[in-house]
Prior knowledge:
10-stranded parallel sheet
Amino acid sequence: MNGGNLISQNGQSGIVIGDKTKANIYNKNLIQRNHGYGILAQGNDCEAIVANDIIKENNAAGIAALQGAFLTVRNQTSIYRNKQYGVFVSGEGTKAQLKSISINNNSNCGIYIEKNAIATLKDASSVTKNRCNGIAVHAGGQLNCFGKVSVAYNKGNGIYASDSNTGIKVSNSYIRRNNGRGIYLKSNAVARTIMQNSLTSNKKYGLYVKHASVKKISKNKGSVRFVK
């Protein structure tokens, strides 16, 4: 779907991409005010590329990748003011590549990752001013975050990870000025790498680790606290 389409005020999700389907959604489409997700990619062998679009004010997440879908969101796509998450990534085999995008002012977390899904956030993307955590990772979800990403001014923590088998890697990024901790690890979550980040000016600690673990931590700026 190329260029200038308005997908608005539908009774369910605005765009749905199902099993064994490939879709390119790019070049200034406006996807807004749908009752479900703005874009839903769901099922095995489902591939969706979203580029240079606006996804806003949908009743659920702006974009969801579920049940084995492969999602790429890139090229200055803006995802904002959705009533749930900005981006929701869930389910075994589900992968999301998020690069050079902005996710802001959503009613819950900017990005929510769960149930063994994997999300990569990179290339100067920003996750800002969301009403809960900037990024939440739970129930075996995995986050890779690098490349001058900014996670800032969120009303909760910048990055919050919990539960066994949940893992994060964060490097060369700016996690700052969040209303909670910059990065908060708890309940057996694992940070494999926390390296070369600015974890400054958060309301609480830059990095707070409670009943969780960090494998490698190096060359960060900001306060750190480990609690047994």
